[in-house]
Amino acid sequence: MSWPPARSDEVVSGALLESHSRRSVLYLAVAGVAGLLPLQGAQAEEPTLPKVSDLLARDGSEGKPIALKASDLEPGKPVLAFPFELDANKMRDGSRLNKVVLLRFDEVSLDDDETKARTAGGVLAFSAVCTHQACDVKTWLAAEKALVCFCHSSKFLPLEGARVIAGPAPRALPFLPLKLDGEVLVVAGTFSTPPGPQKA
Amino acid sequence: MRGRSKTAALAAALFSFVGPASAADYAPVTDARLQDPEPHNWLMYRGNYGGWGYSPLARITAANVSGLQLAWSYSTGQVEGHQSPPIVNNGVMFVTTPGAQVIALDAKTGSELWRYKKELPAELQQLHPTNRGVALYGDKVYVATVDCHLVALDAKTGKVVWDKAPADWKSIHYMTLAPLAAKGKIMVGSSGGETGVRGFVAAFDAETGNEVWRTWTIAAPGEPGGNTWPGESYKNGGGSIWITGTYDPATNLAFWGTGNPAPWPTEGRKGDNLYTTSTIALDVDSGKLKGYHQYTPNDAWDWDEVSAPVLIDATVNGKLSKLAVHAARDGYLWVLERTSDKINFVNAWPYVYNDVFTGIDKSTGRPSYDPSKVPGAGRAVKFCPSLWGGKDWPPEAYNPKTGLFYVPANNNLCAELPAADKPTPYKAGDLYIGYPIEGVLGSLRFKDNTKPDSIGELQAWDVTTGKLRWAHKFPTFQWAPLLTTGGNLVFAGGTNDRMFRAFDAETGNALWQTPMPSGVTGVPSSFEVDGEQYVAVLAGWGVDAQRMQDGFNSLGAKTIVPQGGVVMVYKLAKS
Q: Is the pLDDT at B425 greater than 80, yes or no?
């Protein structure tokens, strides 16, 4: 090939097209279609996002997953968790994008009807993957009632749909609706929007 | 057009459209060229192996720099911190950006020649979403990526030739540095001082990508220096490498700066913790450690000393000496002597306010610490300089014509860390710091707890005498990689007013400034094409400059610095 090339389009477009089509498969599937889809390329061990009737177990726990109850959480102390299928021996933790952060609130602080509809026993669940650069969101600032991301200090308000109130995150944390089965927390839907940062 | 055939005219038009006019073929980058770079090129991170950040070009001078104007600019399509120098080889420019991009541009016109973008894993955690540039060697361009890959690209086409993974991104190893290319090898290290990595420098064969050697920066029991770590603490001891080493071809030694030990509190890792917060000299053929100097043994302040020492030959006390000079995070300016098998202490003095050191041993340079200034378990501690130090990664510059050593310093800043958390074991993929995160994020303090009159200081030192020649002070901090030129100039950005400035290298007088689309934390470079000199830099704020701005915003009035990467290239009007 002669140097320099006359146009850069030929070299660039192939790579861009390839990467766009892979990513659109993921987001189309998340947008509403439940079921099997590849999370990322050839690396994924666990192919599914959280789905209805999944239970939740603490991140880092080993052996058979133990379903979290609302009473396992204390207000002001976020808990990281992964979903798992009832009777499964393993959590859906093959991809960090499945990580959720659970927060428990006293019923009185949940005065927003939309927020109330997503909680179970006072517990709210959000994607724990920052929408800025995918770092873990797991730190609670009690004075501001905000979750803060340690990487670049984005702050999210869980009582207001985890909207962004500070920092570079471009959008709210996706939420995961919950319901109760007796005492046990149960996933009532998939992520409201795709987890993680949305640019390449 | 009179007198020329139509064919010739068409060919001329096509030729000038295709450009660059000066290079029909990409000029392979050889060891000889890297050891003695042409003045019209900028072939590596700091312009030369000594790390000078110096361009000999002198068409742009202190007398005419006020006439600089924009030659061309080019949007990168990315936000976050743009830190890489525009690297130029005979009219072909290479820049890197956040999002693991390499863009090849015609250095004269700014037209894009090719673009490479690595697809990054969707779940990749990016603590430092940036890149500090390519390395050139032979007919290839090398880039280290934030998902810990080292990729070799064909310089003419941008196509991938080989792609290696020196470490695992899932355990939060990552790379932001420009690789070092020398003697057929491409050398890199990994970031991760806050995620409990065991640091290393690794060398890969430039042609094949095969790993040739790997040297750990953290000594294990039984290795030299291994008795400075108790038990198994060395396994996640930190000592990350995230800035390009400098290189002395005469001794074949590469000088690398190492990062902080992990975790931050020292209680679980009593000992000097070799070879963290040090300069280490590695033989480029074998990777063998041939000497070191540790600036802050058993560091407790997150004072990474990754910025590689600048290699200068100068007369000290009447003797011509081979020096290695480093403006450290710890706030001291260190003058060391480099030999073929040792790094010796020569002199050190504070260049910013430091209240941790009570003194420096006159022969070894070992600092003594005020115990009340050592943070850790049990109590909050305030200390100066701050976590980001007197100077963070932004490189100093050396001008052989003025003989001065330029330092982009930040003074009058301190940090307060709360009492350390109860120790928790290392967990792959998680932070391994040891302090409550809110405490780290909100740690910035002013000296004397009142806003100082000045913070940023562009300093010019005579390192042979220890005297400060001049200092240009700013009311705000500066996060400014430096360029100095044979035209008696120093170029620096780094302030939150988005300005890029030129100073008289002898006197420090401010001669020219221009506002950029975003704040400038990029490494500036200079090059020449067709007899015209250009000064080039990436605008694009983010990463730790923004973290520092967040710290300032919490202490008083807020400043908003927009993000958005642009390649900015300046020249004089044609006379």
A: yes
Report how far residue B22's alpha carbon sits from residue B154's, in angstroms, rounded to the nearest whole number: 20
Q: Are A193 and A61 in contact (CB under 8 A)?
A: no
The answer to whether residue A8 neighbours chain B at the CB level (below 8 Å) is yes
Active site residues of B: 302
Residues paired with residue B316 on neighbouring β-strands, in sequence order: B319
pLDDT value for A17: 31
For chain B, say whether A46 makes contact (Cβ under 8 Å).
no
Residue type, B134: V
> Strands of B54-55's sheet, edge to edge?
B54-55, B483-485, B489-492, B499-504, B510-515
Cα–Cα distance for residue pair B202/A5, rounded to 1 Å? 33
Searching chain B, which residue's CA lies closest to the CA of residue A42?
B121
Calpha distance B435→B432 (Å, rounded): 9
- Chain A residue numbers with beta carbons less than 8 Å from the beta carbon of B101 are none
Judged against a pLDDT cut of 60, whether residue A31 lies above it is answered with no
Calculate the average pLDDT of chain B.
95
Q: What is the 3-state secondary structure (H, E, C) of B501-563?
A: EEEECCCCCEEEEEECCCCCCCCCEEEEECCEEEEEEEECCCHHHHHHHHHHHHHCCCCCCCC
CA distance A90 to A74: 25
Return the SS3 of B161. Answer: strand
B380 and B416 in contact (C-beta within 8 Å)? yes
pLDDT tens digits, B109-168: 999 999 999 999 988 999 999 999 999 999 999 999 999 999 999 999 999 999 999 999
**Torsion angle of the four alpha carbons B248, B249, B252, B256, in this order, in degrees rounded to the nearest 10:** 30
* Strand residue runs (E) in chain A: 55-58, 79-84, 100-104, 123-127, 137-141, 146-149, 155-157, 163-166, 178-181, 184-187
With 80 as the cut, is the pLDDT of residue A147 above it? yes
The yes-or-no verdict on residue A23 having pLDDT over 70 is no
Query: What is the tens place of the pLDDT at every residue in B30-74?
Result: 999 999 999 999 999 999 999 999 999 999 999 999 999 999 999
